[in-house]
Amino acid sequence: MNDDGKGPGRPARGKRADARRNEGTLLEAAAAVFATSGVEAPVRDIAARAGVGMGTIYRHFPKRADLIIAVYRHQVETCAEAGPELLASSATPYGALARWIDLFVDFLVTKHGLAAALRSDNTAFDALHAYFLDRLLPVCSQLLDAAAEAGEIRCGIEAYELMRGVGNICIGAEEDPRYDPRRVVELLIAGLQRPG
């Protein structure tokens, strides 16, 4: 990963809008395939879903690790950018928080197989957890603060604790088709509300 903050998944300065859009489509296709088949899914499946040739994927992402990192970063960015947008467009800050947590759960669920890849010996994955926290903790804090200031939730809820709790609820969901973490997360988020 470069020190300039640009790495796989971050648009380079001057990249044409259509090239960024195509890369975004490719990353979303890869995320969807990873969610159903894991990060070791065949590249041809990702290419088919994105409607591109395999050469296009290899041109953008020469190694599988490059693609995994780009998908992860793209999803983190999508989740981070959604927070302020939801706060501006939702009827209440609590509604924005609940909708953002839904997106966060979607992000966690699409990480199928990514956890194992992140624990691998590949040093390219080392900075991703810090990146995840740096981008998403402030967004979650902003949403929690807005909902608390509006009197909709209890005060003093820490973003890290909430995100860690949601993450723990989502663990193992892919191994048990009877378990729907979204229902449990809904209960958790409902429990944040101020009584009465």
From TrEMBL:
Keywords: DNA-binding, Transcription, Transcription regulation. Residues 1-20 are annotated as: Disordered. Residues 42-61 bind DNA. It comes from the Bacteria. It holds the Pfam family TetR_N. The keyword Signal does not apply. The keyword Nucleus does not apply. Residues 20-79 form the HTH tetR-type domain. PANTHER family: HTH-TYPE TRANSCRIPTIONAL REGULATOR BETI (PTHR30055:SF234), HTH-TYPE TRANSCRIPTIONAL REGULATOR RUTR (PTHR30055). This is TetR/AcrR family transcriptional regulator. It comes from Nocardiopsis coralli. The lineage of its organism: Bacteria, Bacillati, Actinomycetota, Actinomycetes, Streptosporangiales.
